[in-house]
Amino acid sequence: VLDHFEQRCRTSKALAQRTAEVIPGGVQHNLAFNYPFPLAATRCEGPYIWDADGNRYIDFLQAGGPTLLGSNYQPVREKVHALLDACGPVTGLFHEYEMKLAELIRQHMPNIEMFRMLGSGTEAVMGAIRLARAYTGRKWVIKVGGAYHGWSDQVVYGMRVPGTGRREAIGIPRGSTAYTQEVFPNDIGALRRKLWLNRARGGTAAIIVEPLGPESGTRPVLRDYNAQLRALCDEFGALLIFDEVVTGFRVGMGGAQGYFGVRPDLTVFGKCLTGGYLMAGGIGGGRDVMMLLAGGIGTGSRRAFVGGTLSANPLSCVAGYHAIGEMARTGAAVAAGRAGDRLCRGLNGIIDRLGLPYVAYNFGSIVHLQTSAVLLMSMRNPIKLMREHAARKHAMEEMGAAYLAHGILTLAGSRIYTSMADTDAVIDDALSRFEDVFRL
Ligand code: PMP
What we know:
Strand 8, helix 9 and strand 9 (about 265-270) form a beta-alpha-beta unit. Residues about 160-165 have low confidence and may be disordered. The chain is globular and about 60 Å long. The strands form three sheets. Strands 4-10-9-8-7-5-6 form a seven-stranded mixed beta sheet, sandwiched between helices. Strands 1-2-3-13 form a four-stranded mixed beta sheet. By secondary structure, it is of the alpha/beta class. The chain folds into two domains: about 1-70 and about 330-440, Aspartate Aminotransferase, domain 1 (Alpha-Beta Complex), CATH 3.90.1150; about 75-330, Type I PLP-dependent aspartate aminotransferase-like (Major domain) (Aspartate Aminotransferase, domain 2, 3-Layer(aba) Sandwich). The protein has helices at about 1-10, 10-20, 75-85, 95-110, 120-135, 190-200, 215, 225-235, 255-260, 285-290, 295-300, 315-330, 330-355, 375, 380-405, 425-440; strands at about 40-45, 50, 55-60, 115-120, 140-145, 180-185, 205-210, 240-245, 265-270, 280-285, 360-365, 365-370, 410, 415. The termini are close together. The protein binds 4'-deoxy-4'-aminopyridoxal-5'-phosphate (PMP). 4'-deoxy-4'-aminopyridoxal-5'-phosphate binds near residues 64, 125, 245, 246 and 270. InterPro entries: Aminotrans_3, Aminotrans_3_PPA_site, PyrdxlP-dep_Trfase, PyrdxlP-dep_Trfase_major, PyrdxlP-dep_Trfase_small. Belongs to the class-III pyridoxal-phosphate-dependent aminotransferase family. Its cofactor is pyridoxal 5'-phosphate. GO terms for molecular function: pyridoxal phosphate binding; transaminase activity.
């Protein structure tokens, strides 16, 4: 299969060899998207993406999640073009769209009174942690093992996950993560114990979670987990940070906080926030916490320093304002969620029929395809789960390459994002391609 694929993708392969000379690993972004070699994209539209050899793929990678409206969505593209024509991508001054975007977010997530635009999810996580520490005057931060919150030192993926060899921790001095603690998903008892212990040594500033569970719900959390976190944070005076980089607007206009009916103190955004237009990251929260970013203006002289040269460029803000507006107008999350449900049902149908050791599970438009039901059952044994996950990762990447060869682009073979552009016909086409791969 791969030989044939390499033949069909000759231009991409040649570019990949050349690129690898000047770009580490041959790509500027996440290496996970590029097995067996990076495909060079030339065109995107709706549910499809085309590579440099003219091959068309059903795009379930969606650039890692931002394009809920479908790729290269025309109504947003036109607004971006109009803004570029008027003032270019950045001004250094305030632009009206910064305000309009913040107002629109507040409209959909009433919990968020104020909003700060940044460049990426990683930056937004860093900012939210700083804000939590500044607000509480405490240093400890608790995250859930296996959760991804970007690549900053203190929360980097795999930090203390048993069985993974701490691969991503190279280059991070022990001290950088000294005040970050990890608990296993769904283990409220362990979390409570950590909060108790921290109380005696200065207290916990924040608990940060992906509200669907680590890695966008690859390891799902129990239905009332988030509500329990809220109660624990209230009891121990810690802030609750929801990392809604993936879920923000993808699981609904109210985000995961709307779905679970749980109010975090701070919310971190990325991805769908701008529909994929650079740059995409932001922090939202209550006025009392957020005003710490304002410094002297209205709060005395205390200021948590967060910001950057290209933060809140009007390009991202106009894209965000219109992307979120279009998501609300079209019901994008519902449409994409239906596509995800259809795909997931179909995949499990094929898996059952062929008796394969896989399982598909989803939360709307976020679909996971994993190697076996053991993964779900071993929720009770997180160490086993994480070892299994690490061991199977390459196998899933190889499956991803086989899907690619059959015209389907996924995220490393184990994650599928559906969009509003995924009609029943697109999903059914995808299912027959998946079946072709499973029958190999
Ligand atoms: N948090 C979560 C839950 C994410 O999935 C990601 C990116 N995949 C990030 C944070 C980091 O966002 P970015 O890649 O924009 O830095």
